[in-house]
Amino acid sequence: GLTNDTASAAEVLMVHYLARTSFTIAFGLADSAAQDHSYSGTFFCTSFEESAGTEDTVTYSATFESTGAIALDTTD
Q: pLDDT class for 60, splitting at 50, 70, 90?
């Protein structure tokens, strides 16, 4: 999931999507061999959609396009 200390992730994505501004994203996975792999880069949000059924939790989906190289950071 996405985290942000000052606003909801959905709100941050929507602001960048509407303004067509790029922003830094860091993402990654922790594997079972106790080695974390994370990636970061600058991206545009190219689509954003929210949906929910009656009395259901709101979910959202977003698509990103990289503006350049994606950096790999491995930490043991």
A: confident
Q: Is the pTM of this model over 0.85?
A: no
- Cα–Cα distance for residue pair 56/3, rounded to 1 Å: 22
| H-helix or E-strand spanning residue 13 | helix 9-19
Tokens representing 18 are 């509407």
- How many whole angstroms separate alpha carbon 6 and alpha carbon 8? 7
Residue 15's alpha-carbon distances to 21, 27, 73, in angstroms, are 8, 20, 28
**Which of 35, 26, 19 is closest to 3 using CA atoms?**
26
Bin 20: left if φ > 0, else alpha if -120 < ψ < 50, else beta: left
